[in-house]
Amino acid sequence: PAEIKERLDSFYWHYPFEFGGQLVEADWEPGRGLYGRHYHRYLHIIPALLSMTDGSLAGKSVLDVGCNCGFWSLQARRLGAESVLGIEGSQENVDQAKFILKLTGIDGIRFEQASAYELSRERHGEFDIVFYLGLLYHLEHPVLALERLFETTRELAVVDTTVIPDSRALCRIQTDVVHEQNYSNRLAMIPSRAAVAVMLRHVGFRTVMLIPNAPATPPPDYESGRRATFIAQK
């Protein structure tokens, strides 16, 4: 127990977890609480995805790009995914994700240090479902990154991103200092909703659907239109 606590205390926690009744709170203020922001993000994203996969991820291969400590990778496996790969630019986050796997004993998931630009079918393979959550608005080269996404997606990609409130297809450029988990990008290209759809279709996705806000109270940035989730279909 002492060794586990020492390891838990050594990491930055972007998501809250509970291990054997011990709450590990998120260090990032908007993410704090098991039934806070990320719980409501789950209620917003996952039912919409399952509505397109017959209610389960059973037998599916899942890729989680920019997986942080593996929160969404774990959810995919719990929802029945046959195999899950999480890639993450930060080696520290990869180490944290592997430690969480060791604590939980969940199998069928592996993690690898790689950036969204290094993603390729040759290196990583092709996946039925790809999670691209909280990543797009951090990227300096969004079209290049989405080309890599398309290359490794077999069926569906779920893209969740901060957006700017503009009806035109454009991106706002700013210094990327959104939160402590930005490890590599200097600039952020924050898209409008229309820009997300244009870019996803440009790289080859046949259909792009915007997920409406769930009936349960969504986090404030979703409710205000400053964040949105899309499902892109090949």
How is this structure best described in words?
The protein is an alpha/beta fold and 234 residues long. The chain has 8 helices and 11 strands. The protein has helices at 2-10, 37-50, 71-78, 91-104, 121-124, 142-152, 193-203, 220-223, and strands spanning 17-19, 22-24, 61-65, 83-88, 109-113, 127-133, 153-162, 171-175, 187-191, 207-210, 227-233. The chain has a 7-stranded mixed beta sheet, sandwiched between helices. It has a two-stranded antiparallel ribbon with strand order 1-2. It starts with a helix and ends with a strand.
Give the SSE layout:
Layout: H1 2-10, E1 17-19, E2 22-24, H2 37-50, E3 61-65, H3 71-78, E4 83-88, H4 91-104, E5 109-113, H5 121-124, E6 127-133, H6 142-152, E7 153-162, E8 171-175, E9 187-191, H7 193-203, E10 207-210, H8 220-223, E11 227-233
Parallel strand pairs: 3-4, 3-6, 4-5, 6-7
Antiparallel strand pairs: 1-2, 7-11, 8-9, 10-11
Helix pairs in contact: 6-7
Order of helices and strands: HEEHEHEHEHEHEEEHEHE
Alpha-carbon distance between the two ends? 47 Å
Structural class: alpha/beta
What fraction strand?
Answer: 25-35%
Strand line-up across the major sheet: 5-4-3-6-7-11-10
Uncertain regions: pLDDT < 50 for 5+ in a row? Answer: none
Query: What is the overall shape?
Result: globular
Q: Provide a count of the helices.
A: 8
Rounded Rg: 17 Å
Largest sheet: 7 strands, mixed
User: Considering DSSP H and I runs of 4 or more, what fraction of the residues is helical?
Assistant: 25-40%
Number of strands: 11
Mean pLDDT: 93
